[in-house]
Amino acid sequence: SETTKIPEMDKLIAWLPKNIPPNERTTIVHGDYRIDNMVLHPTEPRVLAVLDWELSTLGDPLADFTYHLMSWQMPSSDPARPSLADEHDKEARGIPTQEQYVARYCELTGRDSLPELNFYFAYNAFRLAGILQGIVGRVRDGTASNAAAAQNEGRVAPLAQFAYNCALRAGMPG
């Protein structure tokens, strides 16, 4: 569904599959694990439900966790729905920093650290860029179901660049 040639995407297509970190665990993965798909308790810091399971499968739980963690990395493209990256006073709002969140995840899952974090950020941003380019392709083909779908076109190249930069930090040659 390529709509625009993006050199960073081509480099990621070549590099990502050859550099997948060793999978330590296989679990049920959600596939779209993010705050928007959670029902949070109104007064307690806990999740009541996780919604939108149609992309679930078996896979590496780090793919889900790091997709969820993208909220700390990427500013929102919708001013009405700011991301955690847009939140400047996380502590006052009771929101952990990314480092605190990762440390807690590691504690709960018995890991020492997540050294492959940049690989997973590259993978997830690449995946999002591909999904958005598919939506833009449906706009081009006249089959998009959402009237606002065309707005995604401007998000593809920045996501690809973000993914590429994460891959460079993960060891991809420049």
Describe, in plain words, how this protein is organized in 3D:
With about 170 residues, the chain is mainly alpha-helical. Helices cover about 45% and strands about 5% of the residues. It contains five helices and four strands, in the order αββββαααα. The chain has helices spanning about 5-15, 60-75, 100-110, 115-140, 155-170, and strands at about 25-30, 40, 45-50, 55-60. The strands form two sheets. A two-stranded antiparallel sheet has the order 1-4. Strand 2 (about 40) and strand 3 form a beta hairpin. The radius of gyration is 17 Å and the shape is globular.
Give short descriptive properties of this protein.
174 residues; mainly alpha; two-stranded antiparallel ribbon
Compact summary:
The protein is mainly alpha-helical and 174 residues long. Helices cover 44% and strands 7% of the residues.
Secondary-structure blueprint of this entry?
Layout: H1 7-15, E1 27-29, E2 38-40, E3 47-50, E4 57-59, H2 61-73, H3 98-109, H4 117-141, H5 153-169
Antiparallel strand pairs: 1-4, 2-3
Helix pairs in contact: 1-5, 2-4, 4-5
How many extended strands? 4
Report the structural category: mainly alpha
Q: Any idea what the radius of gyration is? A: 17 Å
> How far do the termini sit from each other?
26 Å
Report the portion of residues in β strands.
Answer: 5-15%
Q: What is the ordering of alpha helices and beta strands?
A: HEEEEHHHH
Give me the side-by-side strand order of the main sheet: 1-4
Rounded average pLDDT: 89
* Biggest β-sheet description: 2 strands, antiparallel
Tally of separate helices: 5
- Overall body shape: globular
